[in-house]
Amino acid sequence: MLSFLKINLLNPFGSDLPDREKFSAKIKKRHEVFWNALNAEQVRNTIMSREDPIEKWKDNDYWQRKLSNKFNAREFAIKHGCKVPDLLWKGNDVENIDFSVLPPQYVIRPTIGHSCSNVYVIKNGINLFDHKSYIPEKIRTALRLEIDKNPAQEFLVEEFLMNDDGAYEILKDYKFFCFRGKIATICVIRRISPQSGYNTFYDEHWNKMQMVNNTFSNGEDHPKPKCLDDMITQAKKLSLAYDIFVRVDFYSTAKGAVFGEFTPTPGMGNNYSRFGEELLLKYWENHCYGLI
Q1: Residue-range domain boundaries for the chain
Q2: Whether pLDDT at 256 is above 50
């Protein structure tokens, strides 16, 4: 293990660093800069296309905010050669979702949001996130309420991806903490519900690491996913295109590596371990020095 990852037990990391220099503080500062700007929502809700030239994607300061819109993130990933779930429906006129033509398994998620809020992972009428039955009108009512709160909100109805073995279940999240093409750690989350689960951390060679973040409990070991090499290649490519620190989320599926989303402020900077603070700060200093 590299010397900078060693924790001095007599002087634990963080005790001698000003708060402003910590990784968690950088994340909180980024959130403030990104989302307190007057044009923040306008930038995020500017709908983009994979056909748009890269100059159009980058025509704003902190243009990466566009990629916090999950539809734009899909388009950007496709533009860079990544697979995404099939799109079955998109919009905010939820009365026009024709549930009769949807397969028995599908996923609904908002274009604006985080922490799996307002996500429905439907298998034969049951939402696997809360194990409750949902008829179409119950889903429409819930989606309408969210759109009433934010008229810019849209929803994506997407393919329910099968796991490596061809089964429908809540997929493991593979979350790559990336610094301009360099991967500091991969967080594997076995999610039980939007707010509960277990996480395990690995390096890109699939060596288990100490806990980087304690939002979820320490989980079991996981076998190396079949498409790890593809996920790594694509995460690095997207990270270089993103051009600042970002967490890039993927799924290992029956159709290979599939992009999930970008997360610019993971966990809002909360619950990082001392080891995680040291690791991620060092990567930031080495590969994203001076960047937001």
Answers
A1: 15-60+166-287, 87-159
A2: yes
pLDDT bracket for residue 21 (50, 70, 90): low
Task: For 161-215, write each residue's pLDDT tens digit.
Answer: 999 999 999 999 999 999 999 999 999 999 888 788 999 999 999 999 999 999 9
Give the Cβ contact number of residue 54 at 10 Å.
12
Please state the pTM of the whole predicted model: 0.92
Class of domain 15-60+166-287: alpha beta
